[in-house]
Amino acid sequence: xxxLQYPLYYLDFETIGPAVPMFDGTRPxxxxxxxxxxHAIKGKEANPEHFSFLASGTNDTRPALLIELxxxxxxxxxxxxxxxxxxxxxxxxLAKAFPEYESWVQQVCDRLVDLLAPFRxxxxxHPLQRGSASLKSVLPALTGKGYxxxxxxxxxxxxxxxxxxxYGDVSEEERNKVRADLERYCALDTEGMxxxxxxxxxLCV
Length: 205
Prior knowledge:
With 205 residues, the protein is α/β, with parallel strands linked by helices. Helices cover 45% and strands 15% of the residues. The mean pLDDT is 96.
């Protein structure tokens, strides 16, 4: 906890991994980000600010995502993710596909902090985790809050739902509902990380 430097940025990506490549330069089952949630806390007494991106249309989702992420992700401060290998892998793939972002992506990767680490290393463990260090297990065990009652409640559901309403034949009403559900789900991933850090700070006192 003492390594975190303000401003704090809590970041999460959602991806699709189509078997048949959809865009030039991609490969089968490659994780392609279509959404991010970012909660920013500028200082110890500041309230979180939420920023989000959810791709629309059937074109390559990545260029617009990069543009929006660079707008809202500041140049200093810790970037907190849950399972750094995944988010860092997404960022590095983006840098390969769009070399003009390579230097910026490297700077972002240098600031990543993996919130999974204390749970994977058993620095904290609660029986309600039932042996899992995933965010979906840690969040309710540590904070009492979780994903119950949400129509989209995990990454696989998010991926399937996004593909269905973006590339499938659905009504505008259904498309709007699913997109709203996607926004709520991804936002909870990053807000949940804030709650976890707050709880860990309480335990560290």
